[in-house]
Design a protein that fits this description.
Largest sheet: 2 strands, antiparallel
Radius of gyration: 25 Å
Strand order of the largest sheet: 1-2
Distance between the termini: 37 Å
Structural class: mainly alpha
Number of helices: 10
Number of domains: 2
Length: 245
Amino acid sequence: MSDYETILRPSRKAVNSAVSLGLRTHIALVNVVVAAFAVLPELRKDEAAFINFAKQQYGLTVKGKAVDNFVLLVAKVLFHNISEKTDFRRRLGQIATALRYLELHRDEFPAEYIKRLIHDQGGVSGLVKAFRNESRTSHDPSRKEKKVRTIQTYVAGLPQIGTTTHYADHQCTTINDVKDSQTLEALAQSPGRVLIVGDIDEQFNLTNLRVVERDQGEIDRLLTRKAAQVSKTGSNDNQPMKEAI
């Protein structure tokens, strides 16, 4: 049998730090997830042995339905004997769900970027939300494809920027629709933001540019929502990468 006490020691250290802080800091809970995620592959090598260890050593089992019974058991072992004054039981489900989400996406990111990934997803609660969203989609395998097809059909109906239209006395460049008089000059006559969608080819060129929105109110509302997300997570793709905090 593996020496689970030694394997779990770094994870338990992270848990103890989180308990000492009373989860007053976001990074404390993130560190628990990061530490637990690091040892999961080793624990997965012999799940039966770890399940037996948890039962024999701590009397711990998993009853009922969980996102992943084994991951929840790992979380229960890590938080075993935590002071009753600090009720972390409600956190165990979140931690297990976050760990399961990371497991399912392990091949999509380098291990050293895990903190950044959690940060960009909106923390542990963000991982939980992402997992649930994926679970809902998985009930209808064609749902995601239908959504993509709908978007493609809509975009295909928007005239492409750069298409030359010939008139009796001149030619002009297509923008969006008749409201824009189908000219780039029409945008300059009504200054403001435009929302543009396009494709990126293998040479990183932007192609097939189309204006999908000119309503200033709609665009402002979109930018407001995006700004709120950045303020909440502290993440902005246009800013230099910062360490997750």
